[in-house]
Write a structure and sequence with these properties.
Layout (H helix, E strand, L loop, with lengths): L31 H4 L1 H10 L3 H16 L1 E2 L6 E2 L3 H12 L3 E6 L4 H13 L3 E6 L29 H10 L4 E5 L5 H8 L4 E5 L10 H5 L34
Parallel strand pairs: 3-4, 3-5, 5-6
Antiparallel strand pairs: 1-2
Helix pairs in contact: 3-4, 6-7
Length: 245
Amino acid sequence: MENIAPECARCPVPKGRRACDSRDGAAPRGCPTRSAHDELEAARQRYQDEAVRDFARLASCQEAAGYRGRPHAPTPDLTRIEEVCQFADRAGFHRLGLAFCAGLVDEAQALDRIFTARGFQVVSAVCKVGAVAKEELGLADADKIRPGTFEPMCNPIAQAELLNGAATDLNVLLGLCVGHDALFLRHAQAPCTVLAVKDRVLGHNPLAALYTSGSYYARLLQPAGRGPGPEGSGTPGADPPDDTE
């Protein structure tokens, strides 16, 4: 089979009958399960590293632990927060890093309390740490949320360095912006997991736009969806809250 870039999201084979679901499943042209031999073997070899294999094993065990009624009627049973705590326990992690957005400070405080109540040590860093002016990134005043004022930039590299210096066992991301999360993940030394991502419009639930992409958010399927939102969206004249970004 020809080895081409994978397009698993476009697989025409019904779920449950695919080559990645069963040994005798069907595979469309370019299916990586059947054609990407070199990449799959390279990945398989990485699991031979004891630490990697053990981490992956614990993750798979946690996946199953998230269901009750196994094996006859598996039903989801754990929230994401509970799964993070359980996985950290399984892995023997004691010190959790919390990298959070300034706009979710209340949520960060609640999560800190939960992790602490579960017996973890918590090290946390807010995105605005360091109070570095956005001008240092080359932003013009017009590029700010509030032109004419001092605005500290989001500083995910500093967040990562602070958690690196605290020797965290596992980092949890809470509401970091698009791009800022990528920088944090690139510079963090400990394994990372995401509790919630930033979506200012949908209450940090970006999947809501996917669920309604055939109706209310049909504009996402239009080429114009690649740019700024339509004029008139949002609340005209409303000031953003003090903890923006």
